Amino acid sequence: MHSGTIILLASWIDPEFLWMLGIFFTCFVKYAVAAGMAAAHFENPAWGYLITTVGGIAAAFFWIFFGDWAQRKIVTYNLWIKQKKGKTSLDHPKRFSKKNRWLVKIKKNGGLPILCFISPITIGVAPGCLIAVGFESDRFKIWLYMSASIAFWGLIIFGSKWLMAS
């Protein structure tokens, strides 16, 4: 009975809408992949720009304002897994690593604007927002920078598609 309902429901959903929804939620994980999918799928670059920009800005909002909650859940889950394996905590000494040095270098050489500029294309919106929350306490400022960066990269990606199509 349930499979017939699902098939009937799926036949009513427009496949184009499913593509848009998929691209929107892919922005939560990796903006560059979603922009590539949108650029390849949509004939009109404006649709791709609109969907990826709105999806990226929504992803930035989620990770900036609800990222602490998500990180706590992930840490709790990792602690539960370690306890099942017989380890008692996640504590480990802080060490300098290439990653730590890279973060210090970014903070000294440009800080939040540089991180927000490079993160949608390189590391993704989620890690960029979570790192930025560690740099800056003003979350609306982070969201503003990240939104401007996402809109800029969207203009570059979809503007170049529009120029090549002309």
SS element count, helices: 8
Ends apart, CA distance between termini? 51 Å
Largest sheet: none
Give me the Rg, rounded: 20 Å
Gross geometry: globular
Strand content: under 5%
Unreliably modeled segments: none
Encode the helix/strand succession as letters: HHHHHHHH
State the helicity in percent bands: over 70%
Instruction: Tell me the number of structural domains.
Output: 1
**Mean of residue pLDDT?**
82
What characteristics describe this protein?
0% strand; 8 helices; 166 residues
Q: Quick recap of the structure?
A:
By secondary structure, the protein is mainly α. It has one domain (2-165).
SSE topology sketch:
Blueprint: H1 2-12, H2 15-26, H3 31-41, H4 45-84, H5 98-109, H6 111-118, H7 125-135, H8 139-165
Helix pairs in contact: 2-3, 2-4, 3-4, 3-8, 4-7, 4-8, 5-6, 6-7, 6-8, 7-8
Can you describe what's shown?
With 166 residues, the protein is an all-alpha fold. It has one domain (2-165). Helix content is 80%, strand content 0%. Helix 2 (15-26) runs antiparallel to helix 3, helix 3 (31-41) runs antiparallel to helix 4 (45-84) and helix 6 (111-118) runs antiparallel to helix 7 (125-135). The longest helix has 40 residues, at 45-84. The mean pLDDT is 82.
